[in-house]
Amino acid sequence: MTAGLETMDDPMIGVDIGGTKIAAATVDGRGGIVQAVVRPTPSADGPDAVLAAVADAIRTLTGHERAPGIGVGTGGVIDHDRGIVVAANDLLPGWAGTDVRRQLAERFGKPVAVDNDVNAFGLAEQRFGAGVGHRDVLYVSVGTGVGGALVLGGELHRGVHHTAGELGHLAVPEAVGRLCNCGRPDHLEAVASGPAISRRYTELGGERLDLRAVADRAQTGEPLAIAVITDGARALGRALAGLVNTIDVSRVVVGGGVADMGQRYWRPLTEAFADELQPGPGAIRPVPAALGSRSAVIGAASLLNTHAPPSSVDEGYS
Predict the structure, then answer these.
(1) From which residue to which does the signal peptide run (predicted)?
(2) What CATH number has the domain spanning 12-121+294-302?
(3) Number of C-alpha atoms within 13 angstroms, CB side, residue 138?
(4) N or C: which terminal CB in the chain sees fewer CB atoms within 10 Å?
(5) In angstroms, how far is the first alpha carbon of the chain from the final one?
(6) Which whole-number Å values give the CA distances from 122 to 23, 118, 148, 157, in the listed order?
């Protein structure tokens, strides 16, 4: 039997490393989570502390010793072939350059695969969620940032420089003059991410609130809250339509915390998307992700499955 999510007896380990929390889980061959743990990310203490926390989380999973391998999804630009973080933002200080694969493989003595967390999200949705049955899909995650993953011909497409799908750094007119998390202006993330929407609410005269509170205000009909959510959603919808016009996928799947705001968000998103779409793909509309907050760990575990997109990642473990 090839190493992978083949049976309930030997579930893979999936890990999602974020700026505030680390989630680790054992995942069976149908994408079901057998057991999961969550730990705070000691990001301020540096990469060694983060990897120690990851290892501790894995060791708390019952039967982790029997798992054929470990898959890791994390923020940043990831060289998937080598398992190294090429670049990362300030949510994980000093994370760039970290050899995640080597360090975890040395700790556990088993294969480790590493990829960008949105690629992991896309892989999970492709195998078990909203992308099932589609071979060309654009996946989008909208939360503290805006990230994307691209599946073409049924396989995860990472690109020559490991940045395929990174739509958050598209220059868009709605973001002119606004700084992105990467430090440069005019990017989609600076207007469509959760922090960007809540920050805009404050700038236009509202209280200093997080996105959930702004969304609650919108549900009560408050005009300012509705306006800033609408603006962020429309900016994303226009950008997504432009990408679909360019790469011609059959489905667009949107997930992340921002996408959970309901029809106050989805209506302007889909309307703006439809307005920008060319006649060829005119029937396509963005659909919500199906797996929720579980997607990243499920997709991370799937990185080591030789029967799932991308094709075999077994090479280079030795």
Answers:
(1) none
(2) 3.30.420.40
(3) 25
(4) C
(5) 19
(6) 17, 6, 8, 11
- Is residue 302 within 8 Å of residue 124, measured between CB atoms? yes
Q: Is it true that the peptide bond before 195 is cis, omega within 30 degrees of 0?
A: no
Torsion of CA 107, 308, 96, 159, to 10 degrees: 150
Q: What is the C-alpha separation between 249 and 307, in angstroms, rounded?
A: 22
196: exposed, middle or buried (Cβ count in 10 Å: 0-12, 13-18, 19+): buried
Categorize the per-residue pLDDT at 312 as very low, low, confident or very high, splitting at 50, 70 and 90.
Answer: very low
The full 3-state SS of 75-94, as one line of letters, equals CCEEECCCCEEEECCCCCCC
pLDDT digits (tens, 9 = 90+) for 89-119: 888 899 999 999 999 999 999 999 999 999 9
Distance CA 33, CA 140 (A): 22
What's the CATH number of domain 133-289, 3.30.420.40, 3.40.50.620, 3.30.2310.20, 3.40.50.1100?
A: 3.30.420.40
What does the pLDDT read at residue 9? 55
Per the structure block, which two tokens stand in for 27? Answer: 């995942």
